[in-house]
Write a structure and sequence with these properties.
The chain is of the alpha/beta class and 239 residues long. 40% of the residues lie in helices and 16% in strands. It has one domain: Alpha-Beta Barrel (TIM Barrel), CATH 3.20.20.70.
Length: 239
């Protein structure tokens, strides 16, 4: 099966998910996926590839999940719009399969300009478009997420999705710059429908952030701009 039910912290984000690729070329320093998939980081980030027979398996899953009320997230352990997607068009093919089965989808990506290619499909199905935002500074973004889209490109993709009539949300997870998160809320509130916020994990830099103070500040900011949001459990419980 390609479509599965996430467990643990991931379940806060989506009741169902599908990972089309093995590995991700974005090379984010905080990435938990190499450890979660028991893959050496050099292989995970340096040799991403489509999962074997993934579209055939997805087609079979689509029959099983046809019309399911739960939403499928693309994706947790890779990015559906990493550079390899330009060659494979794997995500576009997967969206066509899911759309034909009337399966709800949420796309979460840092490969944002490429993602706009598929807004024609997303706008004609029950779909949400989401972007991970960590910084509003190009140098900081490149340091933490070397091969992902720059902040301005991610923000523009959200604006473009809204023009297409696609519901949008932002994942502020992981938080690596609390001040940037507050500024990014102001920069995107006009065209983002929902925000999800979670702390940095699996990296020693997390110990440098005052999480209770950030939690209070981000909730106050989101309340002030009148946007619905989810604070993930690990941030809610951070001391």
């Amino acid at each position: 099966m390609v479509i599965y039910e996430p467990k643990g912290k991931a379940r806060e984000y989506a009741p169902l998910a599908a990972n089309l690729y093995k590995g991700c070329a974005h090379g984010c320093l905080y990435c938990y996926a190499p450890g979660a998939t028991l893959t050496a980081p050099a292989v995970f980030h340096g040799q991403p590839c489509p999962r074997r027979d993934v579209l055939r398996q997805l087609q079979a899953d689509a029959v099983k999940f046809r019309g399911d009320k739960r939403r499928v997230l693309l994706s947790f352990t890779s990015d559906p719009y990493q550079p390899l997607e330009r060659e494979t068009c794997l995500t576009r093919a997967a969206l066509e399969i899911l759309a034909s089965a009337h399966i709800k989808v949420a796309v979460l990506t840092k490969g944002c300009l490429l993602a706009q290619r598929d807004f024609d499909i997303l706008s004609n199905m029950d779909a949400e478009f989401a972007v991970t935002l960590t910084s509003d500074d190009d140098a900081e973004s490149k340091r933490w997420e070397p091969k992902a889209a720059l902040p301005a490109d991610r923000i523009e993709s959200l604006r473009a999705a809204k023009r297409w009539g696609i519901p949008t949300w932002v994942s502020f997870e992981p938080v690596i710059n609390p001040g940037a998160v507050l500024r990014l809320i102001d920069a995107t509130a006009a065209f983002v429908d929902f925000y999800k916020v979670g702390k940095l994990n699996h990296h020693p830099f997390a110990q440098t952030i005052d999480w209770p103070a950030f939690r209070q500040a981000v909730c106050a900011k989101l309340d002030a701009v009148g946007k619905p949001y989810l604070i993930k459990k690990d941030l809610l419980e951070a001391r």
